[in-house]
Amino acid sequence: MESSSTDVIVNALQQLTIATYDSLRQFDRTYSFDTYKAGLKLLESRGQVKRLVFQAGKTERYVWLLPWYEDEAIRKLEDFKNDVIEYLTTTPSTGKQIKEYFVEKYPAFHQISYLAFRELVASKRVSQLTFIDNLRSVNIYYLPERRSALDELLQKTLDHVDRHGSAYSQDISNSLGVANRLAFALLATLVHEGKVSRFKVGWSYTRHRPVFAFCKEGHEAEAVARYRRLTSELHVQQKQFRLVEDYMAKFGSACNEMKADQSLADLAGSYLERAAKSHWMRGRDTKSVAWSAFFLANKILRQGITPGEIEAYAKIERRILLMVSKDLNDFLQLDVPDLYPNPTDYLQRIATRMKLPRQLESSNGLIETSALMRETNDFLMSLPKTLFFGKRAESMAAAALYLTGSRLGIEGCTQKRISKAADVTEVTIRNIIRQIEAAIPDREVPTVGAVE
């Protein structure tokens, strides 16, 4: 085991060049932290690895490397230092911001790069403004030649508080375009210097820390009132988010059940989110609005889901679904041309459920399924509009598909297969065929008694 762990260490250092105990563990989790620690000490006693020592407060931190890679390791450390100097030319920063920067940019080296940064601070190449605030250390790091930029941010922060009477860290972050951590540090600095006052107005349960208001003297009541208003707005937003997330899951399940594309759930969720954030939603039944959003998205994406299917799945009355869908369509300005079901919308869905092949056997040889769909669509468009009144769109589509398939001599288009795919009965198809026969007596229409 000793030989295996030391082999892993050497392999890791060859690839990483430099490493800490933690980065070795992240590179290969085969062995424990203590095993790697013991292996490094063994290799060091043999002269096979070397350590660089960094002072971190009162403790020492070690960075390990292979002796023959020392020059490359030193160059890498210098690259980290140059990188943080370049970063600080753009903005002053807190220690946590710099750590987050390194974690994002150098995931395998973030600890080492932060140690390199601390060396810059120790050598005075990076300056820091530091003080104790409520038993916590506040640090703002900046380049000595860029102190004026920090002073300018502090002055702008003070001007904001003077102008508005009070401020929260998010206000300063939005106003100055700086990170929220830096905004809080700037406000804390003004408190430390006695230029503004601060008091606790609440508690953040997500961050497990108090929420402070920073204000001028005499504006405390305004700060409290604004905090209550902001928290109320936040609660509404969180409720809206949970509502949308809950229905997104329901929409996804509905797509699976109805064999629709998952993009339908995403689009329906975006419609619902927009409605939930508006005054339009007030006083309306949430369930009706949600499934109306689903129905509208279905119409936009031409998924061919019928109001009847949504009614059966979501247990919502068809009449209400269509009524709310009309209002939501107007509010969202979607311009869905025909909210009520159109038979042509369901042809492809029926064909998909029938699992028709790309080419079909007909009386005149092979025919493309797409050609069958076009022929059926043309047939539907040629029928008198009066035939469609009072009939389900999927029933009309099923009857038209059967009639077209029969005319073309396609054996696979039987009443049984079509009725099952369209979720209608064979009796319904035959009844509609009789009505078509009566409406267009001169047209060649297969009789309902045709043998399948």
List the helices and strands and how they pair.
Elements: H1 2-16, E1 18-19, H2 21-27, H3 33-45, E2 50-56, E3 59-65, H4 70-88, H5 95-105, H6 110-122, E4 127-133, E5 136-142, H7 147-164, E6 166-167, H8 169-176, H9 180-192, E7 197-204, E8 209-215, H10 220-258, H11 263-276, H12 286-301, H13 307-314, H14 318-332, H15 347-354, E9 359-362, E10 365-368, H16 369-382, H17 393-407, H18 415-422, H19 426-439
Antiparallel strand pairs: 1-3, 2-3, 4-5, 6-8, 7-8, 9-10
Helix pairs in contact: 1-3, 4-6, 5-6, 7-9, 8-9, 10-11, 11-12, 12-14, 15-18, 16-17, 17-18, 17-19
Task: Report what the structure shows.
This protein is α+β, with helices and mostly antiparallel strands and 452 residues long. The protein has four domains: 1-125, Orthogonal Bundle (Arc Repressor Mutant, subunit A), CATH 1.10.10; 127-218, Winged helix-like DNA-binding domain superfamily/Winged helix DNA-binding domain (Arc Repressor Mutant, subunit A, Orthogonal Bundle); 236-340, Cyclin A, domain 1, CATH 1.10.472; 344-439, Cyclin A, domain 1, CATH 1.10.472. It contains 19 helices and ten strands. It has helices at residues 2-16, 21-27, 33-45, 70-88, 95-105, 110-122, 147-164, 169-176, 180-192, 220-258, 263-276, 286-301, 307-314, 318-332, 347-354, 369-382, 393-407, 415-422, 426-439, and strands at residues 18-19, 50-56, 59-65, 127-133, 136-142, 166-167, 197-204, 209-215, 359-362, 365-368. Strands 1-3-2 form a three-stranded antiparallel β-sheet. The chain has a three-stranded antiparallel β-sheet with strand order 6-8-7, sandwiched between helices. A hairpin with a 2-residue loop joins β9 and β10. The radius of gyration is 35 Å and the shape is elongated. The N and C termini lie far apart (75 Å). Residues 446-452 have low confidence and may be disordered.
